[in-house]
Write a structure and sequence with these properties.
- The complex is a heterodimer.
- In chain A, about 25% of the residues lie in helices and about 35% in strands.
- The model of chain A has no long low-confidence stretch (mean pLDDT about 85).
- In chain A, a hairpin with a 7-residue loop joins strand 17 and strand 18.
- Chain A has 10 helices and 20 strands.
- Chain A is elongated, with a radius of gyration of 25 Å.
- In chain A, helix 4 crosses helix 5.
- By secondary structure, chain A is α+β, with helices and mostly antiparallel strands.
- In chain A, the strands form 4 sheets. In chain A, strands 6-7-8-3-9-10 form a 6-stranded mixed sheet, sandwiched between helices.
- By secondary structure, chain B is mostly helical.
- Chain B has 2 domains: about 240 residues, Orthogonal Bundle (MetI-like fold), CATH 1.10.3720; about 230 residues, Orthogonal Bundle (MetI-like fold), CATH 1.10.3720.10.
- In chain B, about 70% of the residues lie in helices and about 0% in strands.
- Chain B has 25 helices and 6 strands.
- In chain B, a hairpin with a 2-residue loop joins strand 5 and strand 6.
- Classes of the chains: A alpha+beta, B mainly alpha.
- At the A-B interface, strand 6 of A face helix 8 and helix 9 of B.
């Protein structure tokens, strides 16, 4: 589902708990956001995914009320909240650098947001120790913030943003500054905590694997605009643009032209003429999915080449091959096969085949 | 904890700003030398190179700082017959001394509070916002701090004095015969000048710290339910508190030992301890009381300095430092724009108007000429400048101001030479191994003269250096030496961060390429610290040109410096004398302001204490 289709669903707006409507924001003449619209369901975890500098964090700042959009509106349960100051919005925001207060210990950091609601001392203490339990940091109350490891700080920051029972939690690259080896574990933990508490959450990241593993839906951004909205599966299986395909790391990209051959429509590519399955015309960028090829000739479109490189990746094996082009240069292609299959040696010929129906995406230029 | 995070610390006080690689710093010499003709001697030199480097500065301080101070102490207790403490107790119980001490604290406290009230909002503006002309504004705010006290006093005199612009205008407008604004010789004049002087300290120290304070901390507080006010009280101020306290203490110390401002703008009614020491020495020749007062003042400033150092060490607490790119924003709303513009304009007026008024007044004739009682036409005149080189009295004792200018320039050059000769080895020693035990002990010692008032230094010279073995009364070096004591801490603080910033890798790779330590110093270190040396030179030069407190006590009548000359002219009646004081002040102001702007241009970003 792309942006325009999404807007057709305007009739269903009432179901969004949070809705952004044509948000625009400039910073000193530089466009940060250029017409951002999307909605969030109650209890949903939505990711905002995109390369750094595309405006992801600015969206969070605007939702939190820390930045004011130049144009557009932010609706919460159908009502504009642009005039509500940040401290009255009741949203939690966890910063990428955690922004833990260095002059307070763990307990005071987590309890900070509880001081503005007439909680009793006992209530606050109880809440802090419950939260420390939730983030698996029991007994850390009196620890100095500055002596915590990155992972511990991250969990204190999460606990702090959850403490005032926010109606919406926003997490800005929460694990970006943590060792790679710990990330997968922490992402699982965050997801579990968010789901246990049935929280509505917006998760900002530049890492597609993170986005894929944590979120119900993904908003994929580029340069201040939304490129594609959908579930991880939707986006992965049907990238809507060349940018999305490249961002997801698909590499078999080449140019092609739609033309007629004998009586059928075909895509003329360096690999030859591939049968056309969609209704497009003119020049296109062609993506051949690396994950949809088979060794042998079982599928309609065969490709032969020479193996240049082979790398074993556990469940899959990645093969780089060189194909003699029908035009001038050689074409390099990458495919992944399950590692059970025997692949010829480096330097040997290999014959693979694909089904243009599901292995080819076309992006009109 | 602190050392491992030093990299991220705020180091306004660069005393503790080693780069994280400081451990490897002095390993540029090959560890295993194959040819060791005199292995023993080489090891000794290598191990003691720091001591050798420190030798000259320490000997200098021993003779010209500790020896005079010990003499002051000696004089203060010399005449006591019943116990060492009696002279101090006598002084402290005398009501006149009590009122002097009381006034010193009172005016310093008031000045500090007003400075903070003006400085903190200014620091906020500088820290959190980007606006047009900000770097110019920043540079301009730096000028008052380095202005010689005599210039500032003269400047305020031309603005709000009895013959100042404000009074002249009011008298012309309303046909008054007497100046309506009587500010000179009041506490207000003192406070106005002190705030003028020291607001820069708050702007710089608090502003720089604030600018690098992660705005996410405040934003996090806002999303957690704290309103603006609660965020300020619970997050921003607690984080700023150490730096605000440190700035306040520094301002307080400066106000506490203020001399020229009190002497000229306060008039005979007001005396701080510093001014009283001067009166007791120069007018009453009561050296024992002067010495007692000097010791009392020294103890106060020493105590305050120790607290200051502790505070500075505390605000090097690990805080995540943000680039100002992410923490500063433009001013959006109209209300903030109007407020900010008004505030900045008011500050600019405050900081520049007295100086502009001084320059303007120095070329304006408002009074009848000497000996002519008819009213002359007002207008532009360079008479005061021309008058500087004319000896109207034909007196043998008369010193032409041009000679004062030449004398001052000579002293300033001498000061530059002495401070560089002492400061460069000291800075090299400091930057080699910043955390070595030796450096930790010696570094604060080098800084000591900074916490000692200028008049005390002068008094020490009078008492200690006027008879053998150190009879320097007639030596032309006496004043440069005194100025060097004042300037040395500034010079070392300008040089050592630059030296520390040179990556040990550079030295190592030069050594691997075959450069000897001498070549490394000449080809790597010196070119790289060229800018720092320029900054240090300008500091030493301008400090010497403007120094008044110590000079007032030790300068010889026939060789006055520019500030002494200004003081003489300003204390004498008559329009021509007043005009010449203004002309000299303007010359001094222009030299100092130019120097400061050059420093602003060349100093390394965010390095250095001053």
């Amino acid at each position: 589902m792309n942006v325009s289709e999404w807007q057709i669903l305007g009739n269903f707006r009432d179901m969004w708990i949070l809705e952004l409507n044509q948000i625009k924001k400039n910073f000193g003449g530089k466009i940060a956001l250029n017409g951002i619209s999307f909605g969030v369901n109650e209890g949903e975890i939505i990711s905002i995914l995109g390369p750094s500098g595309c405006g992801k964090s600015t969206i969070l700042m605007i939702i939190a009320g820390l930045e004011v959009p130049d144009e557009g509106d932010v609706l919460w349960k159908g009502k504009s909240i642009l005039n509500v100051p940040p401290h009255q919005r009741g949203f939690g925001l966890m910063f990428q650098d955690y922004a833990l207060f260095p002059h307070m210990n763990v307990e005071d950091n987590i309890a900070f947001g509880l001081h503005f609601n007439n909680h009793s001392k006992e209530e606050i203490q109880k809440r802090v120790s419950d939260l420390l339990m939730t983030v698996r940091l029991r007994g850390f109350e009196q620890r100095d913030i500055n002596t915590l490891s990155g992972g511990e700080q991250q969990r204190v920051a999460l606990a702090r943003s959850l403490a005032p029972n926010p109606q919406l939690v926003m997490l800005d690259e929460p694990i970006a500054s943590i060792d790679r080896s710990l990330r997968e574990h922490l992402i699982g933990e965050i997801k579990q905590i968010l789901q246990e508490l049935r929280l509505t959450a917006i998760y900002v990241t530049h890492d597609q694997e993170e986005a894929f593993s944590i979120s119900d839906r993904i908003v994929l951004m580029r340069n201040g605009t939304i490129e594609q909205i959908g579930t991880a599966r939707e986006i992965y299986n049907k990238p809507i643009s060349l940018f999305v395909a490249k961002f997801l790391g698909f590499s078999n990209l080449m140019r092609g032209t739609i033309g007629k051959s004998i009586k059928k429509d075909v895509i003329k590519t360096p690999l030859g003429e591939i049968p056309l399955m969609e209704e497009v015309s003119g020049n296109v960028n062609v993506l051949i999915r690396p994950d949809r090829a088979e060794i042998g000739t079982n599928k309609p479109f065969p490709i032969t080449g020479r193996i240049v490189k082979k790398s074993f990746r556990g469940t899959t094996v990645r093969v780089e091959m060189e194909v003699d082009s029908k035009q001038d240069n050689k074409v390099d292609l990458v495919f992944e096969f399950t590692s059970i299959i025997q692949v010829p040696k480096i330097g040997e010929q290999i014959l693979v085949s694909i089904d243009p129906k599901n292995a080819i995406h076309l992006f009109p230029e | 904890m602190v050392t491992s995070l030093d990299r991220d610390c705020v180091t306004l006080n660069s005393k503790k700003s080693p780069s994280p690689t400081s451990k490897t710093r002095n390993s540029w010499q090959p560890e295993n030398q194959i040819k060791l003709s005199l292995p023993h001697l080489q090891t000794i030199i290598k191990n003691n190179i720091a001591i050798l480097l420190w030798l000259a500065p320490l000997v200098f301080l021993l003779f010209f700082y500790f020896f005079p101070l010990s003499k002051i102490l000696g004089v203060s207790i010399a005449r006591s017959e019943s116990g060492l403490l009696t002279p101090f107790l006598d002084a402290l119980t005398s009501s006149s001394v009590q009122s002097v001490i009381g006034f010193t604290f009172w005016q310093a406290t008031l000045s500090t509070i007003i400075t903070l009230i003006l400085g903190i909002p200014g620091a906020y503006l500088l820290a959190r916002y980007r606006f047009k002309g900000k770097s110019l504004f920043r540079a301009l705010t730096g000028i008052p701090f380095v202005m010689p006290t005599l210039v500032v006093a003269a400047a305020f005199n031309t603005l709000i004095g009895p013959r100042g612009w404000v009074n002249q205008t009011l008298m012309d407008l309303f046909n008054l015969t007497l100046p309506p604004l009587q500010l000179i010789n009041t506490l207000s004049a003192i406070l106005i000048a002190h705030v003028f002087y020291n607001t820069t300290i708050v702007l710089r120290m608090v502003g720089d710290f604030w600018a690098h304070l992660d705005p996410h901390l405040e934003q996090a507080a806002r999303t957690l339910g704290a309103n603006r006010w609660q965020t300020l009280i619970r997050v921003t101020l607690p984080l700023l508190l150490p730096v605000i306290a440190a700035a306040a203490l520094l301002v307080f110390i400066f106000d506490f030992t203020s001399f020229g401002v009190i002497l000229i703008l306060g008039g005979p009614k007001f005396a701080t301890i510093e001014v009283e020491i001067y009166y007791q020495t120069i007018s009453l020749f009561n050296l024992p009381l002067a010495a007692v007062l000097a010791i009392i003042q020294l103890l106060c400033t020493l105590g305050l300095t120790i607290i200051y150092t502790q505070l500075v060490a505390r605000f090097t607490r690990p805080l995540s430092q943000k680039s100002t790119l992410s923490s500063q924003r433009s001013i959006y709303s109209w209300r903030s724009k109007i407020f900010a513009t008004a505030f900045i304009l008011a500050m600019l007026l405050y900081f520049t108007l007295p100086l502009i008024s001084l320059a303007a007044r120095s070329v304006t004739r408002l009074e009848p000429d000497r000996g002519q009682h008819q009213i002359s036409t007002n207008g532009l005149t360079f008479e005061f400048y021309e008058e500087l080189s004319i000896n109207r009295r034909g007196s043998y004792f008369y010193v032409p101001p041009t000679r004062a200018i030449l004398t001052s320039l000579g002293y300033a050059l001498g000061t530059v030479v002495i401070t560089l000769l002492l400061g460069i080895p000291a800075s090299i020693a400091l930057s080699r191994k910043i955390d070595s035990k030796l450096n930790r002990i010696i570094d604060p010692i080098i800084m000591l003269p900074l916490g000692t008032s200028a008049v005390t230094l002068g008094l020490g010279f009078i008492i200690a250096l006027n008879h053998p073995p150190l009879d320097l009364r007639t030596s032309p070096l006496l004043i440069p030496i005194a100025h060097s004591l004042v300037a040395l801490p500034f010079v070392v603080r300008s040089l050592s961060p630059a030296l520390s910033s040179i990556q040990p890798r550079l030295r190592q790779s030069a050594a691997v390429l075959g450069a000897s330590p001498g070549v490394i110093l000449r080809r790597i270190d010196l070119p790289l610290i060229g800018r720092a040396i320029l900054v240090a030179t300008i500091f030493a030069f301008t400090i010497s040109l403007g120094e008044f407190g110590a000079t007032a006590l030790i300068s010889r009548p026939e060789y006055p410096t520019i500030p002494i000359m200004i003081y003489r002219f300003i204390s004498q009646p008559g329009g021509i004398n007043y005009g010449q004081a203004l002309a000299l002040s303007t010359i001094l102001m222009i030299i100092t302001a130019t120097g400061m702007l050059v420093i602003e241009r060349f100093r390394m970003a965010d390095i250095g204490e001053f």
